[in-house]
Amino acid sequence: MQDPTALLSSIFGFSGFRPGQAEIVDAVMAGKNTLAIMPTGGGKSLCFQLPALCRDGVTVVISPLIALMRDQVRSLRETGVEAGALTSGNTDEETESVFAALDAGSLKLLYMAPERLASSGTLALLRRINTTLIAVDEAHCVSQWGHDFRPDYLRIGELRRSLGVPLAAFTATADEETRAEIVTRLFDGVQPETFLRGFDRPNIHLAFAVKDTPRTQILRFAAARKGQSGIVYCATRAKTETLGQALREAGHSACHYHGGMEAEDRRRVEIRFQREDGLIVVATIAFGMGIDKPDIRWVAHADLPKSIEGYYQEIGRAGRDGAPAETLTLYGQDDIRLRRSQIDEGVAPPDRKAADHARLNALLGLAEATACRRQVLLGYFGETSEPCGNCDLCDRPADLFDATDAVRKALSAILRTGEWFGAGHLIDILTGTPTPKVKERGHDQLPTYAVGRDLTKPAWGAVFRQMMGRDLVRPDPDRHGALRMTDAARPILRGEENITLRRDTVASAQPRVAIKT
Ligand code: ADP
Ligand code: ZN
């Protein structure tokens, strides 16, 4: 066997390992079953390519994306490494040269789409060519709960058993369930050597803010960073266009980007962004996949991202050069309500919906964090860390209060009105606001009427938002989004548990600035 460190520079031209790589390479070299969880761009491919070159025999690489396989094979071949791919995108010549190299015993890495495993000849082939290692890229594709499920990934476990060789699995998806499922399906439930490293991006400043005057908030954030390249992510295509326009009117160089645009127009934006300094792209999450610009100085989310993984990936586009970069994520009650209803109204089976709610809860836990935000973020990925000193909550600790009493009053208002109303009406009841709706329904006669006068309406808004975020109450799509209590709230209602919330309503309590929307 060859020494991996020597090949690191002679073949790949790298001066050293990135965080986490050396340990993974050692374990794979030693023939152990391994599961490595690393962020996108963390350098996973090296962790199987290097051992593949040093070990005897052939390494089979299962990967879900043909384009990615072809890229890797091309760059390996450019450095003189014998690698090939068997995919549906091959020309006849390509396939033939792969088989010729296999017959000559010179091929070191054989890339293959999972669909190939369905054909009966594949196992015989892999036996014949002395396969000594299976590497699985994007291993989370084996998870049925994930969004990238590929049924043919389920055949990999069987392949490992019948070849009797070690397997190295790689993924950037970190949540517990997915990890557990990878262990079950790829390793027969026997925990492989597991590596989890390098999720921290210490140069990126993290900050969240409650949506208050969203357009003004984004314009203010951009104005403080004029002339720097940035991305604003929006939930809808229409919003990318209006917000792009608003930024241009405010004197920025800005354009929009979304999946509904002609490929040509999208390409033009990508090229401009890559080449120009100080351009702002206002985009849906369609923007970013192929963007490799090192000096993006900031990323803002005008709407709550889809998941922690999504958030992490999107903010991770900032500050690739290691220099300070800033982020701001806006979120509000409407985001939470919308996301909950989308899950509930979807066609997924009940336990999938429960898993999606749990994922959303994790994201909202990050948004409503009460101490260092990076600790919460890294904790989600399984990493422990010290308070970072580079997030909004390290800069300025959250103003917390014991909200047990307030939450119980809110729950009581919900229950006494039969779980048929939204936050607005409930707040009118709690604050004793005699609106026509309150009087019509006789809600001014309830024992809970006006029991919440100690808090302002915006303060109650924050309480309800955080109750939704902690999943104590949930909008019911069959009742026009009326809030209903969940089981998680029962211990608080019964007085068995206390709850601490943030009193972050200072901004919302200010009179709104007049802006056009
Ligand atoms: P991913 O984890 O997303 O699969 P890649 O394996 O594509 O990431 O690696 C991301 C980038 O990092 C590539 O451009 C690769 O060449 C580079 N890279 C990987 N390892 C090292 C290293 N030890 N030193 C410098 N660059 C590295
Ligand atoms: Zn911090």
From TrEMBL:
UniProt keywords, alphabetically: ATP-binding, DNA damage, DNA recombination, DNA repair, DNA-binding, Helicase, Hydrolase, Isomerase, Metal-binding, Nucleotide-binding, Zinc
Catalytic activity line of the entry: Couples ATP hydrolysis with the unwinding of duplex DNA by translocating in the 3'-5' direction
Ranges for domain Helicase C-terminal: 214-364
Domain Rhodanese: 217-272
Keyword presence, Transmembrane helix: no
Cofactors required: Mg(2+); Zn(2+)
Any GO BP annotation: DNA recombination
GO molecular function, one term: four-way junction helicase activity
A GO term from the CC aspect: replisome
All copies of domain Helicase ATP-binding, residue ranges: 25-192
Entry EC no(s): 5.6.2.4
Protein family according to the UniProt entry: Belongs to the helicase family. RecQ subfamily.
Entry protein name: DNA helicase RecQ
Organism: Paragemmobacter aquarius
Gene that specifies this protein: recQ
